[in-house]
């Protein structure tokens, strides 16, 4: 009997379905279009950073940085060229005081070409931002397989990112560090052993916290090896590759450790040890670090708990989805493409949480996470759209969902970029008004052999031309072990006496000198910090203790709140620690004035002036008080003292005019009375 063949409907293959039912749409650009894509990736970062630069220079009328640290790199780099010495002052302070030796060497190379320190720093920052953009685009192209359009869209989010543009013009090694991380990730993905090993080693030469990336690579590769038998698409390094990675990486790291040990007797830079000591978890809240400096930073794109929602708020949706998918894949024993990136982010955050719960100004220590945050978030958008497509089989809807996420990110991201342009200009002025102006004062008014003790050594060390003692320990490692001692000020004072220090330059939030007027005070037009410069007299100058300064800072907050009783209470405590401190009497007097306790007010103001006869503000406000109480004869010498010290003091001038007029009127009345 002849068999009858029953026609069976052929099952549609995935390949046949791809264009019609799949979310992805493979797109391989032509050679011309590829050139256009790369032109965008290269030129757009230059354009966007130039807009920041031009706005800041037009606003401030000078070039500057929003941080003081860049001038540390510049000082080391210049001295390498001028004195062939890795030192902070000529060839006399040889030390491992640069967190990023590789960046410092590049700065030194820049000084061989041009002497303008700002151009060198801007060129390096923007140049590595461009290289980071290229590396990020190539990494995105790998992760999105052949979907080049998705890769370009993801790369553009990175390029318009406000913090990437901000830090590119900040004179720091951050964009170099990010480039090395991205390049190492890319070559690791391709399993290119030698370039991967080189970039992996250079990461540590750029920042010690690069160990987080090394740990993430180890975790990722262990998972690859574990799952490779079941998932044939996972590619392994060969035994020869692993041996080559070990040799190349080992040699680069050995050179790094040897250099630091030779310079300072420690395998890590001074800056690393100093910051770990100063920002110890004992004195910093780990919870605040996670809450404000990590969560708020990556949720809202700020380093402050108060902000307007930005592009990070949208990216966080995709990132959290990818994180959830990673956990699910680990449970199902499936390899997840985001393992390396998420592991790096979590390990870096853990290291700072555990050892140094401080993200620095503008969240600088968290910035290396940003490109991976963007990549993982964009992959999350794609995976959300994939799942939507799987259950709805509506390609138009799922693709629209993906592009809505991307469009919102662009829209908010450009707004963030524009807002941060103003922040960049303001912060450049902030640093210039304090650190740079202080440095220029030293250059103009101090002598060649003078020695400056300060905690902000960047601009002062670079521009002043004077030897610097770093009381924060970054380039003076002998002080590091004592920084957090309660009696550190006493130890520091004895130390700077031995180093022949002639001047002090302190932000008031760090240290205060008692009963001595500063030679120069930086402008206070932008809060919160003000830097004072003092002449240092070894047997006279008194720096108040750390605990006492904390009470002063708290007292000033109470002054703004006009909390009289609390102010008096805390100044009582301060005077127990520093009984001969005129400023404590002055602040307590203000507390008494709020309560109309005039006798106590007069007692404290008189005591403040006894301790410090040239206390200008005490003379001013006590003189005004006496004038308001019609005690003109007593008020006059106080107001005249203010005019003598500050001839253009309008408040004193007005009060003195009132006093003189009143005394003149009184004298005329007495004369008329005598005549009668």
Briefly characterize the structure:
The protein has helices spanning 14-21, 31-60, 70-83, 101-113, 117-143, 148-159, 162-168, 174-190, 193-206, 211-227, 239-264, 270-278, 286-300, 311-332, 339-355, 370-392, 395-445, 458-463, 488-498, 546-561, 564-577, 582-594, 598-611, 616-628, 632-645, 650-675, and strands at 451-454, 467-470, 503-507, 513-514, 520-521, 531-535, 542-543. With 676 residues, it is mainly alpha-helical.
Structure description:
This protein is mainly alpha-helical and 676 residues long. The chain contains 26 helices and seven strands. The strands form two sheets. Strands 2-1-3-6-5 form a five-stranded mixed beta sheet, with helices on one face. A two-stranded antiparallel ribbon has the order 4-7. β1, α18 and β2 form a beta-alpha-beta unit. α13 crosses α14 (311-332) and α16 (370-392) packs antiparallel against α17 (395-445). The chain is elongated, with a radius of gyration of 32 Å.
Give the averaged pLDDT, no decimals: 90
Largest sheet, if any?
5 strands, mixed
As a percent range, the share of strand residues is under 5%
Low-confidence stretches: 1-20, 303-308
* Helix proportion: 55-70%
Q: Supply the number of helical segments.
A: 26
Whole-number radius of gyration? 32 Å
Amino-to-carboxy terminus distance: 156 Å
Shape: elongated
Q: Could you say which structural class the secondary elements and strand pairing correspond to? A: mainly alpha
């Amino acid at each position: 009997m002849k068999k009858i063949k029953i026609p069976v409907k052929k099952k549609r293959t995935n390949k046949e379905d791809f264009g019609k039912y799949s979310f992805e749409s493979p797109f391989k650009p032509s050679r011309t279009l590829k050139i256009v894509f790369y032109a965008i990736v290269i030129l757009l970062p230059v354009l966007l950073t130039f807009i920041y630069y031009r706005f800041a220079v037009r606003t401030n009328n000078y070039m500057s940085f929003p941080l003081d640290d860049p001038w540390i790199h510049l000082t080391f780099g210049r001295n390498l060229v001028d004195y062939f010495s890795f030192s902070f002052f000529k060839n006399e302070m040889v030390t491992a005081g640069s967190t990023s030796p590789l960046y410092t060497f590049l700065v030194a190379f820049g000084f061989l070409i041009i002497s303008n320190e700002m151009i060198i720093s801007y060129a390096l920052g923007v140049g590595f931002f461009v290289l980071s953009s290229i590396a990020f685009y190539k990494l995105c192209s790998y992760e999105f397989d052949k979907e080049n359009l998705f890769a370009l869209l993801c790369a553009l989010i990175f390029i318009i990112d406000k913090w990437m543009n901000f830090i590119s013009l900040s004179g720091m090694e951050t964009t170099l560090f990010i480039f090395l991380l991205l390049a190492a990730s890319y070559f690791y993905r391709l399993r290119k052993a030698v370039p991967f090993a080189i970039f992996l080693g250079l990461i540590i030469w750029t920042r010690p916290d690069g160990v987080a990336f090394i740990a993430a690579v180890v975790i990722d590769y262990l998972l690859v090896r574990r799952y490779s038998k079941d998932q044939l698409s996972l590619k392994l390094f060969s035994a020869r590759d692993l041996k080559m990675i070990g040799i190349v990486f080992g040699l680069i790291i050995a050179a790094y450790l040897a250099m630091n040990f030779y310079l300072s007797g420690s395998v890590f830079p001074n800056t690393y040890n100093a910051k770990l000591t100063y920002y110890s978890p004992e004195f910093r809240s780990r919870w605040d670090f996670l809450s404000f400096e990590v969560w708020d930073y990556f949720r809202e794109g700020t380093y402050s708990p108060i902000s307007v929602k930005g592009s990070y708020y949208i990216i966080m949706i995709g990132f959290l989805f990818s994180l959830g998918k990673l956990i699910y894949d680990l449970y199902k024993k499936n390899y997840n493409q985001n393992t390396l990136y998420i592991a790096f982010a979590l390990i870096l955050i853990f290291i700072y949480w555990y050892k140094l719960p401080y993200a620095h100004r503008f969240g600088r220590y968290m910035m290396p996470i940003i490109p991976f945050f963007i990549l993982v978030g964009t992959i999350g958008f794609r995976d959300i759209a994939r799942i939507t497509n799987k259950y709805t089989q509506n390609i138009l809807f799922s693709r629209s969902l993906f592009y809505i996420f991307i469009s919102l990110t662009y829209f908010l991201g450009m707004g963030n970029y524009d807002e941060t342009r103003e922040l960049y200009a303001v912060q450049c002025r902030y640093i210039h008004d304090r650190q740079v102006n202080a440095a220029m004062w030293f250059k103009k008014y101090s002598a060649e052999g003078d020695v400056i003790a300060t905690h902000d050594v960047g601009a002062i060390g670079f521009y002043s031309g004077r030897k610097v003692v770093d009381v924060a320990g970054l380039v003076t490692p002998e002080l590091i072990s004592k920084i957090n001692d309660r009696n550190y000020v006493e130890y520091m004072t004895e130390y700077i006496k031995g180093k022949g220090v002639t001047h002090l330059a302190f932000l008031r939030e760090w240290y205060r000198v008692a009963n001595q007027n500063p030679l120069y005070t930086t402008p206070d037009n932008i809060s919160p910090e003000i830097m004072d410069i003092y002449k240092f007299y070894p047997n006279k100058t008194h720096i108040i203790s750390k605990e006492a300064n904390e009470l002063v800072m708290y007292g000033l907050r109470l002054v703004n709140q006009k909390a009289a009783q609390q102010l008096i209470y805390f100044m009582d405590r301060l005077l127990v620690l520093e009984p001969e401190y005129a400023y404590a009497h002055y602040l307590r007097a203000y507390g008494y004035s709020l309560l109309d306790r005039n006798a106590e007010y007069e007692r404290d103001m008189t005591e403040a002036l006894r301790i410090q006869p040239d206390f200008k503000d005490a003379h001013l406000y006590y003189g005004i008080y006496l004038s308001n109480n019609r005690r003109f004869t007593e008020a006059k010498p106080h107001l005249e003292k203010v005019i003598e010290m500050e001839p253009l003091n309008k408040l004193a001038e007005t009060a003195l005019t009132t006093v003189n007029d009143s005394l003149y009127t009184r004298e005329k009345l007495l004369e008329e009375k005598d005549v009668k």
